[in-house]
Design a protein that fits this description.
The protein has 258 residues and is mainly α. The chain has helices spanning 2-15, 21-28, 31-42, 48-78, 80-100, 107-129, 139-154, 160-167, 170-179, 182-209, 211-229, 236-256. It starts with a helix and ends with a helix.
């Protein structure tokens, strides 16, 4: 049940600009468990627990995307500051958990967090300045975009839509989904599938050998994504919702780790 709930939350996050499902997984404390389960399935190491975890997540994500997308769209259109306040609070709460998992005073970890933050921050700022493409995109570029999009599905801190914006293919992909243009969707989907397999397997190995460094990199990503979408506003209630989000994060962390 807890993975189904987590799947719902990850599905919501994937609907939101600037927030990734990976961030929510990290907040829950089950990021590495989910990564291991996905790696086992991809490597044909079939086991009941891995199948159960991924099935619950996928069903939860599907339910949230299908049934909650209109509600979230309404809330973000009518109350954007309050909505972002809660999700920023969730991210801050998740950062506390991630930081508790590493030796934060170690110089190498601090350096990686700093480099990751700076690179991600400027990439996202660059994305904001880009105009979307007119749709004349090569098949190979769409394939590469799918791979990069897959990586951002797995990594917390940066959303897939942000990276597609950086590459200038966000609008062509959205238009292709709306118009069911398979000449664009097929190469992109192959990239996503291949990228997920490659990234999951590589990331699991990296976590096994360089856990602190990988988590430090993810912390930098998460902080940068949070700074980019932080709602600067004069509405005091927004910051009340932010505090609510922090407490909600700690509550969810406790539930999902029971």
């Amino acid at each position: 049940m807890k993975d189904f709930i987590l799947g719902i939350l990850m599905g919501i996050a994937n609907l939101l600009p600037g927030i990734s499902g990976g961030t929510i997984a990290a907040i829950s404390g089950r990021y590495e468990i989910i990564l291991k389960a996905a790696s086992d399935i991809i490597s044909f190491k079939w086991n009941k627990e891995a199948f159960k975890i991924l099935t619950s997540l996928i069903v939860g994500m599907g339910v949230s995307i299908i049934f909650l997308s209109k509600i979230l769209s309404f809330l973000f259109e009518k109350y954007p500051e309050y909505s972002y306040g809660i999700f920023i609070g969730l991210i801050i709460g998740g950062l506390f958990y991630l930081i508790s998992q590493i030796e934060i005073k170690q110089k190498s970890n601090i350096s990686i967090i700093t480099i990751s933050f700076v690179l991600t921050y400027f990439l996202l700022r660059f994305a904001e300045s880009l105009e979307t493409s007119n749709g004349n995109v090569s098949m190979w570029y769409l394939f590469i975009g799918g791979i990069i999009g897959a990586a951002t599905m797995v990594l917390p801190g940066i959303s897939g839509s942000s990276m597609l914006l950086i590459m200038g293919i966000y609008k062509p992909i959205i238009d292709a989904i709306s118009n069911m243009d398979f000449s664009i969707l097929i190469p992109f989907a192959f990239g996503v599938g291949g990228g997920l397999i490659f990234v999951i397997l590589v990331l699991e190995k990296l976590l096994e050998r360089f856990r602190d460094h990988v988590l430090s990199f993810l912390i930098g990503l998460t902080i940068a994504g949070m700074v980019i979408i932080f709602p600067i506003t004069s509405k005091l209630l927004t910051y009340v919702f932010l505090i609510v989000g922090i407490f909600l994060s700690k509550y969810l962390e406790r539930i999902l780790n029971e």
